[in-house]
Design brief:
Elements lengths: L4 H18 L3 E6 L2 H4 L1 H16 L3 E6 L2 H10 L6 E2 L2 E2 L3 H25 L4 E5 L6 E5 L8 E6 L2 H8 L3 E5 L1 E3 L5 E3 L2 H12 L3 E6 L17 E3 L3 H6 L7 H13 L4 E6 L5 H6 L7 E4 L2
Parallel strand pairs: 1-2, 1-11, 2-8, 5-8, 11-13, 12-14
Antiparallel strand pairs: 3-4, 6-7, 9-10, 13-14
Helix pairs in contact: 4-5, 7-9
Length: 285
């Protein structure tokens, strides 16, 4: 589609109030799902991050990488087991998780941002003991429950003009490494940063009243309404822990939390720089 110069100017003018609202503020993006696997969508997400950074928004990218961990475990002949949606993580598995998350995925995202003209610096939760954790459940092994988050390393990176790219690996004072749920880590990091917004990228369009009808998207949900939507089954299955992370983030000090469809190109910009948005917003009434 060809856009005229006049149309380009109108688009920029329309976006100006939203840019002004977020300039100088922190936005945390939890990145995962299909947008992480599809190369076109991955490029779209990174361009969104760079554009927001260039107009003065302090963006922080927090990523997971479950499918790539499973793929690597398969390559070394190790079977993946899940209990209640959480990966059983013995010592060998957590070493693979650290290698994949803090190595392969983290550095490839940093490299991609740099090659597109942005500035990025990779961090893991181990750096500066940023994410401290303890055993969540003995049956799960080295799956971590966050006990403390120190966001100073993230702030230092932002102050130097870089986009922090954070892998969700945690640690404790005994030298143990833990695999941390990326939604939980992003919510906790956003809360500690008192972020203006947390944007959680998923593989659905948001919270739907009817899961089979995209037209039933609920654009706004207050944290006070969320428990009733869980109780009546509107929010169910794997969305329950995601929504609980959204509610926790609001209670921890994040102003607004969005669940958006990461399968839509430039969904971050659509959510932040337009009236309509694209997903479901959580807020405190």
């Amino acid at each position: 589609m060809k856009i005229s110069n006049a149309d380009r100017a109108r688009i920029l003018v329309h976006a100006l109030p939203y840019i002004q609202k977020y300039t100088g503020k922190i936005i945390v993006v939890k990145y995962g799902g299909n947008a992480m696997i599809d190369e076109h969508l991955k490029n779209s997400v990174m361009r969104d991050m760079i554009l927001l950074s260039l107009v003065g928004v302090k963006v922080v990218l927090v990523h997971g990488g479950g499918p790539e961990i499973t793929e690597m475990l398969s390559k070394i002949g190790k079977e993946t087991q899940f209990v209640n949606g959480l990966r059983v993580t013995d010592r060998e598995t957590v070493e693979v998780a650290q290698m994949v998350l803090s190595g392969k995925i983290n550095k490839s995202l940093v490299n991609l941002i740099q090659n597109m003209g942005g500035k990025a610096l990779g961090l893991s939760g181990v750096d500066g003991h940023m994410i401290e954790a303890k055993v969540k459940d003995e049956a799960l092994g080295f799956v971590g429950d966050i006990t403390k988050v120190d966001v100073q390393p993230i702030l230092d990176v932002i102050d130097k003009g870089y986009i922090p790219v954070v892998s969700t690996i945690g640690c404790d004072n005994e030298g143990n490494i833990y695999n941390i749920n990326a939604d939980t880590a992003a919510a906790k990091i956003a809360g500690e940063l008192h972020a203006e917004a947390l944007i959680s990228m998923t593989d659905i369009s948001g919270i739907l009243r009817d899961k089979n009808d995209p037209e039933t998207l609920i654009p706004k949900i207050s944290v006070e309404e969320a428990p009733a939507l869980i109780a009546d089954g509107t929010i169910n299955g794997g969305m329950i822990p995601k929504v609980e992370c959204c509610v926790n983030a609001i209670n921890w000090g994040v102003h607004r939390v969005f669940i958006i469809d990461g399968r839509v190109s430039h969904s971050i910009l659509i959510e932040t720089l337009t009236d309509e948005g694209i997903g479901t917003m959580f807020y405190k009434s």
